[in-house]
Each structure stands twice: as C-alpha cells, then as structure tokens.
Write the structure tokens for this entry.
Amino acid sequence: VALPPVRASKAREDLTSAAPAGRVAPAAATQDPPAPPISPVDLEGVRERVDRALASLVERRRDQLDFLEEDAPPLLAALSQAVLGPGKRLRPAFVYWGYRAAGGEPHGPGAELAIGAGCAVELLHACALTCDDVMDGSRTRRGRPAAHVRFAGLHRRERWSGDPEGFGRSVATLLGLLLSGWAEQAVVEAGVPAERLPEVLGLLDLLRTEAIGGQYLDVVQARRGVAGEAEVRRAVTFKTAKYTVERPLHLGLAIAGGGRLREALSAYALPLGEAFQLRDDLLGAFGDPAVTGKPFGQDLREGKQTWLLLRARRLAEPAARELIDRSVGQPWLRGERLDEVCALLVECGALAECERRIAGLFAEALAALDAAAPPAPARAALTALARYATGRWR
Amino acid sequence: VALPPVRASKAREDLTSAAPAGRVAPAAATQDPPAPPISPVDLEGVRERVDRALASLVERRRDQLDFLEEDAPPLLAALSQAVLGPGKRLRPAFVYWGYRAAGGEPHGPGAELAIGAGCAVELLHACALTCDDVMDGSRTRRGRPAAHVRFAGLHRRERWSGDPEGFGRSVATLLGLLLSGWAEQAVVEAGVPAERLPEVLGLLDLLRTEAIGGQYLDVVQARRGVAGEAEVRRAVTFKTAKYTVERPLHLGLAIAGGGRLREALSAYALPLGEAFQLRDDLLGAFGDPAVTGKPFGQDLREGKQTWLLLRARRLAEPAARELIDRSVGQPWLRGERLDEVCALLVECGALAECERRIAGLFAEALAALDAAAPPAPARAALTALARYATGRWR
C-alpha cells in the first residue's frame, strides 16, 4: 500500500501554489485566470467598508466593557483579534451582493444597512471560529495562537491556580458568547428600519441556528465515524452552504426589501456553498499550513467525515481502504503515515473526483445565477465570488 | 485550629431546614415568616404563564431543528431539560413586576409581551447554567446530570471515538450558543411593537454583556485568588445584581413604555441583588446538596472569591486564616478538612456578618421600593420577591 509520499506533496503543491484563482477575470471556471487587480471581496470597497464598521463596533463594545476595569485588557485584546484580525469577509460580501442583487443602491443609507448586517454575520463567524478552536483543540487560527491558547498562556504567565487549559477554554467560550450576542445588536445599531427588523432578525436567528445545528452534526459524525453520503451532505448544507452563502444573500435581500429573488439565489447559493466546502476539505487534507493557517492533516486526525473521505472509501482497494479506516480519526496520524494516507486519497481518484464535483457544482451555481438575472454589477460580483470561493487560492 | 465539625453542621441545618422564608407574609425581614399559600414567583400566575410560553417556544425550536433528523433527539432532550426543567423563574418574575410597576395591566397584550421578555431572560439563564457547568466542571445541575455530562455519557454508551468529556463539553457549548441566540427571537416572536424593539433588544444585549463580563471577572478572580472587597463587589454587581434583578426590572419598564421608575428601581435592585448573592454564597458553603443541587463545598474547592471568604480572611486568627488560605481553591478540599474550614467560617464570625449584611441590604432595598412607590400590587410583589430572593429557603 505504501505509495511514494511525493504524490501527496505534488497534490499539495498543485493545490496551493497555483496563481490566485479568486480574482475577477473572464477566464473559464475550470482554469485559473490571470491575476487581475481586484479581489472580488473588494469590489465596491465592501471589505474595507465592513472592516471600518467592525472597528467602530468594537470601539463601542470596549466602552460597554469598561466596568471590567483592570481585568479588561486581555478580553479586549482577544475581542479585537477575533473580530478585526485578517479575514476574507466573504459572508459580508454575500450579504452586500444579495442586497445589490435585489436592486439596492451601492451607496447611501440602504448600503450602510447591508454593511451593518454583514458585520452581524461576521461577528457570528468570529464566534464560530473561536468556539470551533476550543472544540477541535486547534492551537492556531490564521497562523496565530487561538483565543483559548492565549488565555491559557495568560494563566501560566501569571502563575494562577488550577488548570490553564480549562481556564483558556472557559474564557474563550465567554468571548464566543459575547460575539454571538452582539450580532443582533450590530443589526439594531445599524438602524434597520423598525418594520423590517423582525424579518432581518429572524433570518439572523435562522442562520445561527442552522450553523450551530450543522456544527453539531459535524461533531457527532466525526466521533461516530463512517458517515453516509446523505448524512455528510446534510452537515455540509447547514454548517457551510446555508451559513456561508444562502442566508447571507437572503439577509441582503431582506435589507433591500426584495424577496423576489429568494428562491433563485438559493439555487445559486446551495451548490456554490457545497463546492466551497469541498475546496475546504481539499485544503484541509492537502493544504499548506502557511496558507490555511492550520497544521497539516488536522481534519484527518480529527476524523472529519468529508465527501473526499467518503469517496476515497468507495474508490480505494480493500487494503488501502483498511489503512485509511485505521488511520483517520487517530491523534497520532502525522509524518510518513499521514503522507501515505494523503497519497492514497490521490491515488484512488478521490481527489480528482472532488475536483470534478467542484467544477460541476460551480457550473450549476452559475447557471442558477443566469436564471436569476440580477442587475449586471451583482451578476458580475456573484460570478467572481463563486470563482473565488471555490478556487484553489483564496 | 480543629473545631468540632458539629458547628458547620449546625450552620448547615440552620440554613436549610428553616421553614420556607420566601412566602408572602407580613413578618419582619430577619425572621422566617409562617408559610402562607402562595410563593411570590407564583403571584398573578407568572411562573405558570412563563412555563407555558417557554414550552411553546421550545416547540417552535424543535420544528426549526427538524433538519437534524435522526441526530436530533439527544440535542432536543438536552434543550428541553435546560429550558423546561424545574426553575424558580425568578428573573422573569422581576421582568413582569417591573412591567407592572410601570403601570402595565395584569392581562392582555402588554402582559404577554412582559412574559415573552421574561422568557428571553430565562433562555439566557439556561445558557448561563449550561456553560457555567462546563466551566466549573460541575457534574450535576438541580440534582440531575449536567448537559455536558449527559453528552459525555452518550459518547460512552455509543462507544464513539475520541474523548467523551471533550465531546460533552463541545455539545453543551453548542447548546449554550443556541439558547443564548434564541433570547432575541423570544422578544421578536412575542410581538414587541417595532418602535419599542430597539430599546428592548438593547437592554437584553446589556444584560447579556454584563452577565458574561461578570462571569469573566468571577473566573479570573477564582484563579488569581485573594481578591479585595471592591473587586468582589464588582463581580457580584455585574454577574448577579444587574443580571438577576436590575436589568430584568428595566426590561419590564421598557415593555410598559415607562422609564420614569428606572433609577428608583435600580436603587431597589442593586442592594437586593447583592444580598441575593450573599445568600447564594452561604448556601454554596453550607447548603445541603439535596436543596442546592450542588455538591458540598464546591464553591470553596473552586476558590470562588466571595464576600464571605473575604470577611473570614479579615476576621480569622492567623492560624485559622492560614488554614483557610491553604485549603480554598484546592480540588482535594472534602470530608473533615472541608468541615473544618466551614466551621472556621462560622467561628470567626464571617457567617454572622454575612447574615447581618443580608439583612441590611434587604432593608435598603425595601426603603428604595418605598421611595419608588409603584402601584400597590407591584409593591407587595416586589417586597415578597425581595424576601424570597434573600431568604434561607428559596
């Protein structure tokens, strides 16, 4: 079964060293386009506008936490890192372009509301990342220590009593609860008109409930092991496709007051979100830690039930399959054995199938976007975002 | 230093075997009144109305989680236990009586909104209890297994892979995030008029932020050890007094549209909330597990920095103080040594001082209520609630 580990390395290289695929360009979906000057999350300045709004939001939260006095600094630092650290702001981009798809103006009060709703989703995302790192025991996030690791470090430096890791987990969880709770307030403070507030808050609630439910499915499946295709796709639909693409677009529509495109944009969002997750799975298995910010093979060690793994189990020879089943979900899966498993995922054809499936889902999403026929700028941006979200480099 | 453990047992008995002190009665604050027919949380049927609204809310959430399919039952069962399990519904009672204090009618649409806002606070409380149990590593809640313990048990029974305790903590945290997120939705779904929604949601946000901040102070102080009086009182103000009494009352005022009493009710709420925490500290140190639902001495083992402990450090002889400092915050603090420490807390006069302080704060709260002069039914109810919240039996 031992395959030359060079195969896995080759797959890693192909996946991470390609030219940025997420830039706006008229190139075909299956081919990496040349790098043009602007990333799709930056179209109409969305990323910068979101970052500005998030910074002012964090400022207001700092004032609200003044009562913590001398104990405030570590929590405020973690808050800033969680919200204002580097991020693609992909979900706010979908909120904004959902708003523009429904005919919203690029500037003025409506646009500010869309940016505000985007911030709400970004706060939920900061919560999700903070809590996921606690649940997965991930030590790093975007190449820096995860929040729970920072607080465990504080505990050690100060030589406090008790278990530093437990303390780190506790404070990171409190931070997650704060971030999640502020999402609603981001919408309220953005000034969403009172009569539209119940609908917008209802969507935010749905987005959060679905994301948490999807994460629950993911956690259960990783522990139970060997999931079926329907199960895996269900988790992906809720923890990723609805959370990352569909509900943000719906939020944008609700802000613009235009529900007409709701179904049509779902038809674009759901295949795109699934393709986004498949790309994430490939990066999780083969991605360079310097790019993904996560250590090699973490998803495989955790036993994450991905579509990639599911296909590999179907396609692999019995001996290879047995090796995969004995290795996935094992905390010791590192070094040569990890390389061997990665090589098997390539060798059996699962990686190639995954790439084909991404391309197919991408095409499906674009066809749905064609049918939805939003105004030209939204159509161009949603096309570029689809390429970006499913591309090898993002 | 060894005192007869009978002293601690005696204190426990005094604290837990007295006749219910929380019943409505004209008796003096410092004396247990005879038991009358109705508990103050049941006045005007508030507890039952809240329980009914919570049950219908959980029903709607069940439908929303249908997508979890065969994985739904364990999460739904934990959700029901967290929200619909036995509870005093003290915070919803303060919301309701804040509403009545501002002149709200006991029945009709306004009252339903107050009950809905009470449910929101109760959902946040269910989140707090679920997450606190994870943070403290408490195995039981109200005498039953805590949520994280139930999920760890599921993991073991199903013989899943990985660490059962880690799985239990992860799922309990997800449950906490769900509960917290649903608070806003409880207010929206109750039908709070659009023009009042921003204020009500703002108060809910403040309540949550203060409670989480207070809990953060509490966690830090327990690990750092030996806190000063100002520090301890700050944590108590935010994690208890504002969270349990002041903000619920303010929510009720906002529902009734009457901000006139805001300051006056704060003057009632803050001393009362502090007294409530002092009673909780006494129950935490001396309370019967059968009544408190928590094992003997848990607060002392965790090193919780309470006012009781602070006074004991001031009042105790050097040898006794040294024994206290060497024992508090130690996971091995059980059995005879625990009895010894409890006896010292009594012997040095800290328990008696705590009782005197509770009586003083109670009197302060009632004087403020007098000055606020709300309508007679609200005044009677808030008096009874104050007695209930600070009484030896609740």
Remarks:
- Residues 41 and 88 of chain B are 7 Å apart (CA to CA).
- Residues 1-7, 16-30 of chain B have pLDDT under 50 and may be disordered.
- Chain B touches chain A through 60 residues (CB under 8 Å).
